[in-house]
Amino acid sequence: MVKRVAILTNGGDCPGLNAVIRAIIRSAEQKNIECYGFINGYKGLLENDYVKLNNSKRSSGLLNKGGTIIGSSNDINAFRMKKVVKGKITYVDKSEQCIKNLKKLKIDCLFTLGGDGTQKSARDFTKRGVNIIGIPKTIDNDVPCTEVTFGFNTAVQTATDALDRLHTTAESHERVMILEVMGRYAGWIALASGLAGGADVILIPEIPYDIKKVIEKIETRNKIGKHFSLVVVSEGAKPKNGEISVKKVLETTPGLDSIRLGGIGEQLAMQIEDITGQVTRNTTLGYVQRGGVPTATDRILSTEYGYKALELASEGVFNVLVVQQNGRLDFVPLDNVVGNNTEIGAASGYTERTNLRKVDLNGDMMKSARAIGISFGD
After folding, report:
1. What are phi and psi of 7, to 5 degrees?
2. How does pLDDT run across 311-328, given as a tens digit for each residue?
């Protein structure tokens, strides 16, 4: 019987995190289950840094609050922690300390709110005997086995608002305006915001683009009297026979995604202006997409995910990810989420074994975009 549960929020901050926490706290109190929160994700779990969560104060005013009240981290892999001995760097497995901390606090189930990296570590902890229920969080919408992650809708709305504003400048000055959006190795934000914001060209990681095709679309618009164009490019997009644009390679612990993407928008802007002679400007939306107030859609989805996670825990269903499939709440084993990436402590992210959810090139959103003449540079 579940008596105590704990929550950690890990990875990048995301609209809706606090709404999930609120739903878990309130659902737990209905069942007389104590609720705790580990501070700063897996870092707090490793350092045994936690706080008791309760309905009276901790869950008040959280539904529309951005960020996370218990903090987050994206630089901890407890299975491979950096250690320097006599000037030599080695890596040690500290996961047992995390497990001891859970046992000491008598936690019956740990809720992991995060994306593919968070859920990879969650799955690895289940192999060491920890009861875990994952909840899919990321603006990138790339967690496998679910139709949608919370935070995605808010990010798309933010990017769409930006496109609405860029549209007026593009038209007024007869320019090509580029918007670079997040998404890492999946093009969901670019596709959805581009479709909603009236983009003429959408470039996504799933389709390596031909710059000649992009130019062709812009020049076709100029010929029919539309002397401006809107281009949305995902940070992970790349040209045919080219590479993704890497802003920085971080010095991180093995098992963490060390690549920071960025720069493709500026690169594209220079190419278009050089070839066409038309003034071209890039706007990189950046971390604005991850912050702030969640949309109504994300508030509802977060609440549903939180309630479902607590319900599963009270029923003794563990080591799963709460998902939405065919529009309904469900769950899948965490083993399904990591796919072939089964090595404990191995990296998530951009690896051959990682099971990321990419844009469905035959899906209705793609078909709709192509049908109305949006170019994908192919």
Report:
1. -125, 140
2. 999 999 999 999 999 999
Closest CA to 121 of 88, 86, 151, 80: 80
Residues 285 and 210 in one domain: yes
Which helix (H) or strand (E) element contains residue 332?
strand 328-333
Distances from the Cα of 203 to the Cα of 34, 206, 238, 263, 349, angstroms: 47, 9, 8, 14, 20
Q: Are residues 73 and 125 in the same domain?
A: yes
A 10 A CB-CB count for 2 gives 19
Q: Which two tokens stand for residue 58?
A: 């901790």
144, 70: one domain: yes
Strands 320-325 and 132-136: parallel
User: Catalytic annotation on 140?
Assistant: yes
**3-state SS of 254-298?**
CCCCCEEECCHHHHHHHHHHHHHCCCEEEEECHHHHCCCCCCHHH
On whether the CB atoms of residues 313 and 331 are closer than 8 A, the answer is: no
234 domain residue, yes or no = yes
In the predicted structure, residue 352 carries a pLDDT above the cut 80: no
pLDDT at 350: 60
Q: Which of 13, 140, 200, 257 is catalytic?
A: 140
pLDDT in tens, 268-321: 999 999 999 999 999 999 999 999 999 999 999 999 999 999 999 999 999 999
Note whether 232 and 245 are same-domain residues. Answer: yes
| Under 8 Å between Cβ of 297 and 153 | yes
Pairing of strands 320-325, 328-333: antiparallel
Q: Which residue has the higher pLDDT, 346 or 154?
A: 154
Matching residue, tokens 């890990």: 10
- Domain range for 268 is 155-290+361-371
Domain assignment present for 376:
no
| Paired tokens of 106 | 């008598």
Single-letter amino acid code for the residue at 298: D
The answer to whether the beta carbons of residues 23 and 308 sit under 8 Å apart is no
Per-residue CA distances from 21 to 37, 212, 291 (Å):
9, 48, 17
Centroid of chain to Cα 212 = 31
Q: Which of 44, 39, 40, 32 is nearest to 12 (CA)?
A: 40
Considering only CA atoms, which of 118, 115, 116 is closest in space to residue 45? 118
* Domain annotation covers residue 354: no
